[in-house]
UniProtKB/TrEMBL annotation:
It comes from the Bacteria. Belongs to the universal stress protein A family. Residues 1-133 form the UspA domain. It holds the Pfam family Usp. This is Universal stress protein. SUPFAM superfamilies: Adenine nucleotide alpha hydrolases-like.
Length: 143
């Protein structure tokens, strides 16, 4: 089982809840380290105005709420930038052995226009990636 797991969350969404539920299926050990991260997307024109480590009390509180439900040690990371790039960067920094990320299931034109963060992370990650899919509204991950 991986010792360091980076969990990428879109805080406050049903998909974030599913990603966290998926951790229950991983047989986590007491010494497993979880890094809960949230990336605040930055529009190119805003890039110079936003700090690398933004401070958003609401997001930070949401991450802390998620953190209290974990059964092993954890850290919080909240950064600004391109979500896929930042998730991969954090995986390198922490030497993550697994990344857990959600997928909204975009297809067709939406996927082309908005891009797929999970697909980009899978392509660029230095480790294995578990993608949790939101298949249908209201469907709950059941392991």
């Amino acid at each position: 089982m991986p010792k360091i797991i980076l969990v990428a969350l879109d805080c406050g969404t049903e998909l974030a809840d599913l990603v966290l539920q998926s951790l229950d299926t991983l047989n986590l050990q007491p010494d497993t380290q979880i890094i809960l991260c949230h990336v605040i997307p930055v529009v190119a024109s805003e890039g110079e105005l936003v700090a690398d480590r933004p401070h958003d009390p609401d997001l930070e509180q949401q991450l802390q709420t998620y953190q209290t439900d974990l059964s092993c040690p954890s850290q919080l990371e909240m950064v600004a930038g391109d979500p896929a790039e930042e998730i991969v960067r954090l995986a390198h920094i922490y030497k993550a052995e697994l990344i857990v990320i959600g997928s909204r299931g975009l297809t067709g034109l939406k996927r082309i226009l908005q891009g797929s963060v999970s697909s980009q992370v899978v392509a660029d990650a230095p480790c294995s990636v578990l993608v949790v899919k939101l298949s249908e509204p209201g469907v709950v991950f059941n392991g």
